[in-house]
Design brief:
binds iron/sulfur cluster, Rossmann fold, 4-stranded parallel beta sheet, 3 domains, 14 strands, alpha/beta
């Protein structure tokens, strides 16, 4: 390895070793050595810079395979990654996910530098609701508690009583003294929860652009074609889709199910990044194509990760005003009590 004009050059031996390392994982997705070779110098440089700058890369389960298997330090759902962010001793966190996740990491690690490779990686759920919407809902339902899904921006979290994930939403709703719950912002998740509790659930109109596309008719057809397959769906899917599933949950729960199940065939009804990850981690199991792509998650790539590490632009830094962060953190801390 040598360095000229801000560019690092790696030896043939270093590049071959890195190509082989990538190929050991990514060959399970049908990647050839030639494809892995095209990424080797980028992954080597990113991994080197991470050490030099005392940085870690947190990658959501929906990220591209070359990020997950090439450069990430921790991979998980938004809640698992937030916990990692709170615990790490690294000075800098590169959050390869979407904005609401990076904001959560910043709130839980306020003294750390948190950077987003793609600053415009949003989320249709997070964008569906504003802080003023929450204030208005509270006025309409003064006796209700506001339980807000983690897929929201900091300003919305700041107006909420408690934050939740798909995994702990029901537990949190049941533990509150209020009989009326404003559940924000995912309409389908609110409808799915309403079937599991006796409390009155007041929902909102937010939808995930990936999960709203799955239809029960399509899944029924798959079921007939692959009768042995276990169908795992995200709780952001409609109640009609959830009704067909063997498991409805978040990405962490889907992963646990695949790991513990004796079944050999699975349909992973969520963003495609998770099924790619599972194909690599469980090469003997079969995953039937049944996923959708999130345009926001897929904005991150190795090039913008490298930029965030090497020479970040001002919009890659995640900052939250002190007042919003303080109030949002209160609602987040309540969620962490349910961990
Ligand atoms: S998959 Fe859906 S919920 Fe997740 S970031 Fe994309 S739009 Fe948002």
């Amino acid at each position: 390895m040598n360095s000229t004009s801000n560019q690092i050059h790696f030896s043939k031996e270093e590049l071959d070793a890195e190509t082989n390392r990538l190929f050991a994982s990514l060959s399970h997705l049908g990647w050839t050595k030639e494809i892995c070779q095209t990424y080797a110098s980028l992954t080597l440089e990113i991994n080197l810079l991470k050490k030099e700058k005392n940085a870690i890369i947190l990658a959501h389960n929906y990220q591209l395979p070359e990020i997950i298997f090439g450069v990430s330090d921790f991979v998980g759902d938004s809640y698992q990654l937030s916990k990692q962010a709170a615990q790490t001793s690294a000075e800098t966190i590169i959050f390869s996910g979407v904005r609401f996740m990076a904001e959560t990491a910043k709130m839980l690690s306020p003294k750390k530098k948190v950077l987003m490779p793609s600053p415009d990686a949003g989320c249709s759920l997070a964008e569906s609701i504003s802080a003023q919407d929450v204030i208005n809902l509270r006025k309409q339902h003064p006796d209700a508690a506001v339980v807000t899904y983690i897929n929201t921006y900091a300003e919305v979290k700041a107006e909420s009583d408690v934050i939740c994930t798909s995994n702990n939403a029901l537990k949190i709703i049941e533990s509150l003294p209020n009989e009326k719950i404003i559940f924000l912002p995912d309409k389908y998740m609110a409808q799915n929860l309403a079937k599991l509790t006796k409390k009155q659930i007041i929902g909102w109109e937010g939808l995930c652009v990936v999960h709203e596309e799955f239809s029960p008719q399509k899944l029924e057809a798959y079921r007939r074609f692959y009768p042995e397959a276990k169908i795992l769906v995200h709780t952001e899917c409609s109640p009609a889709v959830v009704a067909i599933a063997d498991l409805a949950g978040g990405t962490g729960e889907m992963q646990k199910y695949v790991s513990n199940s004796s079944a050999n065939q699975f349909m992973i009804v969520t963003e495609c990044g998770l099924s790619d990850k599972l194909k690599v981690e469980f090469p003997k199991k079969k995953f039937i194509p049944s996923c959708g792509l999130c345009p926001h998650m897929k904005r991150n790539d190795l090039r913008n990760i490298l930029k965030a590490l090497k020479n970040p632009s001002s919009d890659q830094f995640v900052e939250i005003s002190a007042d919003v962060a303080r109030r949002a953190q209160k609602a987040l801390d309540k969620m962490l009590e349910f961990a």
